[in-house]
Amino acid sequence: MVFYQIKKCTSDECAYCVINPPRLPEDIFQSLHFVPDPVMRDGQYVVFDDIYGTETDDSARPGLQNVQPTSETDKELKKILVASMSLYFSSF
User: Fold this and answer.
1) Number of C-alpha atoms within 13 angstroms, CB side, residue 17?
2) Do 39 and 60 form a contact (C-beta atoms < 8 A)?
3) pLDDT for 58-78, tens place per residue?
């Protein structure tokens, strides 16, 4: 799953921001930060308020935890699955 966060750039050269300026007061808009990625410390996720406004990376993302490496058997069976699926879809 992919999430995108967009914040208006407010540049005078940006066509979108010229037509659709932020509706918040300037001081509130400037204080907004992107939603931080999850951060783990000592096996626990850090509270949102503690990391809001800081630079984070996605290394503690739940989808990256406990990723099992692909075995050679899985790689070989994948070829069979792809071949059978292509035959299935070509029959339509």
Assistant:
1) 10
2) yes
3) 887 777 777 677 788 877 777
Q: In this structure, is residue 51 part of a structural domain? A: yes
Half-sphere exposure of 14 (CA within 13 A, CB side): 10
Helix (H, G, I), strand (E, B), or coil: what is residue 48?
helix
Residue 25 lies in a domain: no
Label residue 87 by pLDDT band (50, 70, 90): low
Residue numbers of the domain that contains 69? 34-90
- Our measurement of the distance from residue 32's CA atom to the centroid of its chain's CA atoms, rounded to an integer in Å, reads 18
Does this model's pTM top 0.85? My answer is: no
Question: Position 48: which residue type?
Answer: F
